[in-house]
Request: fold
Amino acid sequence: MEIKVVKQILEWNEDVSREVSETLKDHKVIMINVMGSPGAGRTSLIKRIINRLSGEYRIAVIEGDIAGTIDAKAIDEMGIPVVQLQTDGACHIEAMSVQNMLPMFDLDNIDVILVENIGNLVCPAEFNIGEDVRVSILSIPEGDDKVEKYPLMFTLTDAIILNKYDMLQYFDFDEMRVRRNAEDINPDAEIFAMSAKDGNLENDFIEWLKERINEKIRG
Amino acid sequence: MHELAITEGIMNAAVPAAESAGAKKILEIRLKIGELSGVLPEYIQYYFNIISKGTVAEGAKLVSQTIPVQIKCPDCGFEGPINRKKIRCPDCGGTHFKITAGREYFVDSLEVE
Reply:
């Protein structure tokens, strides 16, 4: 006998993700999900966003890590509200974890929540956490084949950051290969070159991000 | 690494459905898996064999069918499946489409006795 079921397998994550998104909408808060490999520069990117935008917007951070509080301490020292989310071994952040974190923030006095996802190019891409914007970092030393090898991470994202761009001269990294492959699987994604060593490079990304933030919090 | 959570999700969908239909045993669980979901059915069967022990689902075979990526193109009106390696409108080449299918994965039906 056949029984028709038609039930989403991780339905709860999608449901909770929608609830998080509703809560953020009510409070006019934008959430930005920062993803990338360990060492790609997620924490540095978050710090640079804070440096550039904390004068204009009220920023808070959720630091996802498997263990420890190293990154959260660094953000806290910048005077930014931060909550450390320890996944205790899990390879990604889920919407439920974010939902549990939100009451720790004064959402009426926050414009932007930056979420540092777990360092991983696979699992974080599969879980919506209620975010408005996804940013995927690919750093030059990781190699120019990553878009082909981890397509979901670069398909379901709004911006791809080529980080540590100053290292381009030291590696056999074919930037056009990355751009071609990104264009194939995600033609709408913006691609930005960035480097912690050259603040001018990040201007385009910061402008793009500001547009997205303004759309959400003033729209 | 989250295949276990997915497997639990399958159990949570399948077991109550089978029990409420008065089934003694689930023979087959039919899954539909989107091409963009990142779910690997072959790993799930392995976890499933472990966590289904002692339930009506013990011994059930997981059979999965792939859901291709589908889009709806507002520029030319195209609606349908596309090649996941070349994500754009196959008719007009447009890139402002909405992905309408291919991310989801769900339990579609069960074969029980």
Remarks:
- Chain A has a mean pLDDT of 93.
- Chain A has one domain: 11-218.
- Chain A touches chain B through 28 residues (CB under 8 Å).
